[in-house]
Design goal:
binds adenosine-5'-triphosphate, about 350 residues, Rossmann fold, Dna Ligase, domain 1, PurK_C, 17 strands, 3 domains, binds magnesium ion, alpha+beta
Length: about 350
């Protein structure tokens, strides 16, 4: 098709739209009212609620293929889209929108999540503290991102200070890990799969701060098993496009944390650092084009998020040595803890 519809209006959609425009496509976005920074890079953008049937019909009527940049698009919205337009089966969203279902799904395919329990009530929470133990983390099963909707529980005693939020939660063991890493793959319509190198991911307060290559020996040793799981997940979902799985590299091997059925913050380095970026390959995949080579172009790469009011000083980064690549998302509102942009620095080219 020649017009790509993107559900969601954030920075992932913005960078996806830039890649799509470069390949000659038109892009129409769709998202509810908000700081829809994808609109700046789109040919057109429809602002409407997810359940606005008329607006959705107008959107889909103008698209040749529809994808998403936001994993919490309501399933009812996706169900209302003519199914032949969907680049990827909605099942991927369904599984990934719920931490309990994504962990069960990964486990059913041979993955190892941290021990966890479903928590529907205060009593479930008390029982989970005993069964799963402490330290642990209570997370809302749905809608969490950037570490929001999570409460760390250091000890059973301290648990009394954590209020059960009254929605379905998961309580999981606090994992002792050496490094976090992600597997990012792209799967084409023909089922072919390519992986980018896995970065070591550093978080700050539950939010990604930095992604680094090389990721270190432990991660490198665990990447093959993690990739195997990611490929099984992608195959089982009939996935098309970019898919991300997050892992903890523990002494016992890769522990599955969560999946994102989309391009991912830990893949932003691929714009300058890989032969083909995650954004371009996502577009290629959903449009049925040949996938691009994913190989890393530099011996060392660092991607760092620009968060909150650091964005106000971000242009100063351009004066720093080492030719930093600055990306600002054009968000109108600067808020503490909000991802405003990122900067990628690369080392010597691999020859
Ligand atoms: P994202 O923004 O990646 O979607 P999220 O809000 O969905 O994040 P998680 O990825 O589950 O939530 O958790 C955020 C971060 O909190 C993790 O990357 C990790 O650093 C830390 N964390 C989460 N769960 C655990 C755990 N069980 N043990 C140790 N650390 C954890
Ligand atoms: Mg998440
Ligand atoms: Mg995560």
């Amino acid at each position: 098709g020649s017009t790509i519809g993107i559900l969601g209006g954030g920075q992932l959609g913005r960078m996806m739209a830039v890649a799509a425009l470069q390949l000659g496509y038109k892009v129409i976005g769709f998202a509810p009212e908000g700081d829809n920074v994808a609109a700046d890079a789109s040919s057109d953008f429809i602002t409407a609620d997810w359940d606005d049937a008329a607006a959705l019909a107008e959107f889909t009527g103008r698209c040749d293929v529809v994808t998403w940049e936001f994993e919490n698009v309501p399933l009812s919205t996706v169900a209302a889209i003519p199914q032949h337009l969907l680049a990827c089966p909605a099942r991927a969203l369904e599984v990934a929108q719920d931490r309990l279902s994504e962990k069960a799904f990964a486990a059913s395919l041979g993955g190892t999540p941290a021990p966890y329990a479903r928590v529907e009530t205060e009593d479930d929470f008390a029982a989970a503290l005993v069964r799963v133990g402490t330290p642990g983390i209570l997370k809302t099963a749905r809608d969490g991102y950037d570490g929001k909707g999570q409460w760390r529980v250091r000890s059973a005693l301290e648990a009394s200070g954590v209020r059960f939020p009254g929605v379905t939660c998961i309580y999981e063991v606090f994992v002792i890990y050496e490094t976090e890493f992600s597997v990012i793959l792209v799967r084409g319509k023909d089922g072919s799969v390519k992986f980018w190198d896995s970065t070591a991911n550093l978080h700050d307060g539950g939010m990604l701060a930095q992604s680094i290559l090389p990721a270190g020996a432990l991660v490198e040793a665990q990447v093959p098993a993690a990739r195997q799981l990611a490929a099984k997940v992608a195959d089982a979902l009939g996935y098309v496009g970019v898919l991300t799985l997050e892992f903890f590299a523990t002494r016992e091997g890769p522990m599955f944390n969560e999946m994102a059925p989309r391009v991912h913050n830990s893949g932003h380095w691929t714009i300058e650092g890989a032969a083909t970026s995650q954004f371009e390959n996502h577009i290629r995949a959903i449009c049925g084009l040949p996938l691009g080579v994913t190989k890393t172009r530099f011996e060392a790469i660092e991607m760092r998020n620009i968060v909150g009011d650091d964005a106000l000083r971000a242009h100063a980064i351009l004066a720093e040595p080492g030719e930093p690549h600055l990306h600002l998302y054009g968000k109108r509102e600067v808020r503490e803890g909000r991802k405003m942009g990122h900067v990628t620095r690369v080392g010597h080219a691999i020859r």
